[in-house]
Amino acid sequence: MNKKEVVSGIFLIVLVFVLWSFYPQENDKNDFSEKIKITLRQVGNQLLLFNQDSTSLVLPIKELETDKFQISFQKELSFEPSVLVAIVKLNLEKSAVAENYRVEVIECLNNEVSYSYEINADEEKTIIPCAGRVLPENCYTIQIKFLQKNNPKSSNRYLLYIFIPILLGIVYRKYSDKKSNVLKDDSKDSKTVLGSFIFYPEQNKLVKKAKEIALSKKECELLEIFIANANQVVKREELTKRVWEDNGVIVGRSLDTYISKLRKKLQEDDAIKLTNIHGVGYKLEIN
User: Which long-range contacts (CB under 8 A, 24 or more apart) does 155-160 make?
Assistant: First the structure.
């Protein structure tokens, strides 16, 4: 076997393994489907909480066709499209299952699309129409089509990705290491879904439907700490140190005053409670 045949053989092996690695495996499909259903159920639950509905159900998530899923609800609901965009984005980013998807809000009775948008890893291809108008209370289904999904890979395929560049280097006697571009979240408006609120720490505000609730800088700092430690007791000493002492000022009753103000602003959502743990500190309880 001459040198040319050896090189051709190596190239053929590399090509076969590359094609095999990108061929969708049945287990990958099932894992993706089950993970998406869990994620979309969480999306539905958060939309209900936004409507101050903690009793009605999110109906079973349906897979309408390959990579297309539907969220249905037991009761009618109303929401602002921007809230839907934020909730879907936060949950899909957290589960890391897809970057490119299209969302349609469909009325149950006439099957008409009330609102739709598309998210793409390439921000120039992202299409989000004006989302400031609240959709009236009605029966809706939400259909999400995944245009390109991030399928889990087996450990064997991870090894394959390591050795392919080495084998190609043998074939071409030249290997160029290219660094992949990392998508960064340059969003200036970072936000957190908190029950029926959306918290914008950089803008010092809470948003509930179309209503904005301004927060002072100290209230915002306290709420960030509580969200990071949701359903856990945060000691008074830690709150005082992080919010006041670092600025060189400690006022004995300041913490209680700001906690009281913050509690009043959160009281519109029964699923959220800012509880005083006597002699210890406070706890943000989220049901």
Answer: 157/21, 160/17, 160/21
Encoded amino acid at 265, one letter: K
Q: Which of these, 112, 105, 116, lies nearest to 140 by C-alpha position? A: 105
Residue 130 and residue 128: Cα distance in Å, rounded?
A: 7
Q: Quick one: which of 118, 87, 127, 75 has its CA closest to 100?
A: 118
Its sign, for the CA torsion 145, 103, 47, 195, is positive
Instruction: Answer whether 180's CB lies under 8 Å from 172's CB.
Output: no
For the whole prediction, is pTM greater than 0.85? no
The answer, yes or no, to whether residue 209 has pLDDT greater than 70, is yes
Question: Looking at residue 185, what is its pLDDT?
Answer: 40
| Structure tokens, 190 | 């970072």
DSSP state of 279: T
Question: Quick check: 149 and 92 in contact, CB under 8 A?
Answer: no
